[in-house]
Specification:
Blueprint: H1 3-38, E1 54-55, E2 58-59, H2 61-77, H3 83-101, H4 117-136, H5 147-177, H6 183-210, H7 212-217
Antiparallel strand pairs: 1-2
Helix pairs in contact: 1-2, 1-6, 2-3, 3-4, 4-5, 5-6
C-alpha cells in the first residue's frame, strides 16, 4: 500500500466512523420499539423506560445499554476539528455512557425525584451536542469556498442545534415538569435522536464536498 492509498484508507475510516455514529442514532429508537414489540413489550413511555420494562423475563436492556455505550465510545474516540469541538464531543460521549450507567427511577410514582443523575446526563448530552452544532460546526465551512453553500450549512447547523435543545426540552416537560409519562415522551426523545443523527450525516456531506479531511491528510494545507 503506497502513501496515497494509506491516506485514503485513513480518510475512509474517519468517514465511516462518522456515518456509524449517525446509523446507531437512527436505529436506536427503532430497535427499542420494534424489538420490544417482538418480545411482547409495548411502546414505553420513554426510551429510558426500556432499561426496566420486561415481559416474561424478556427485556430490551442489553440493546439500550449497548447502543449508548457504542455511541458514547465513538464520540470519545472521534476527534473534532479543533480543541473546543473535541472536548464537547468527549463530554457528549461520557454523558451518553452515563445515561446507560445511571438508569431512570422505576415504579416510584408518585414519589419519583424530579432531578436525577440519569436525567442530568440525558439533558447534558443534547446540550453538548447542540453546542457543537451551533458554535463548532461552522468552523470548516470556509473550506467549501462557496458563500451560498456556507450560509446554507450554517443555517442548517444552527437549526439542528436548536432542535437538539427543543426536543429534549419537550421530553423534560412531559416527564419531569408535568410528571406524566406517556408515548409522546418517547416520540420527543426519538426526534431528538433523529436530529442528532441528521447532524452527523449533514456534517459528513459537507466535509465530503470540501474534501477537508483528505486535503489535511495529503498535506495540502
Amino acid at each position: 500500500m503506497n502513501s496515497d492509498d494509506l491516506q485514503k484508507h485513513i480518510f475512509a475510516t474517519y468517514v465511516n466512523l462518522r456515518i456509524g455514529i449517525a446509523a446507531l442514532g437512527l436505529m436506536f429508537p427503532t430497535i427499542l420499539w420494534i424489538g420490544g414489540v417482538f418480545k411482547g413489550i409495548g411502546l414505553q413511555s420513554s426510551m429510558s423506560a426500556y432499561y426496566h420494562a420486561t415481559m416474561n423475563g424478556a427485556s430490551m436492556r442489553d440493546p439500550f445499554v449497548g447502543i449508548l455505550f457504542a455511541v458514547g465510545l465513538f464520540l470519545i474516540l472521534y476527534r473534532g476539528w479543533n480543541a473546543k469541538e473535541n472536548w464537547a464531543l468527549n463530554f457528549t460521549g461520557l454523558f451518553a455512557i452515563g445515561v446507560a450507567i445511571f438508569p431512570m427511577e422505576w415504579n416510584c410514582a408518585p414519589n419519583c425525584s424530579r432531578l436525577s443523575l440519569h436525567g442530568f446526563c440525558a439533558i447534558s448530552l443534547f446540550l453538548c451536542m447542540a453546542y457543537v452544532c451551533i458554535w463548532c460546526a461552522s468552523d470548516t465551512l470556509h473550506l467549501l469556498k462557496n458563500e451560498k453553500l456556507e450560509k446554507k450549512y450554517s443555517r442548517i447547523y444552527k437549526l439542528l442545534g436548536a432542535g437538539m435543545i427543543l426536543a429534549p426540552g419537550i421530553a423534560l416537560f412531559l416527564t419531569v415538569i408535568s410528571n406524566k409519562l406517556h408515548a409522546y415522551t418517547f416520540v420527543a426523545e426519538a426526534i431528538g435522536i433523529l436530529i442528532f443523527s441528521s447532524y452527523w450525516l449533514m456534517k459528513s456531506k459537507e466535509l465530503a464536498l470540501s474534501k477537508a479531511e483528505l486535503k489535511v491528510l495529503m498535506g495540502e494545507f
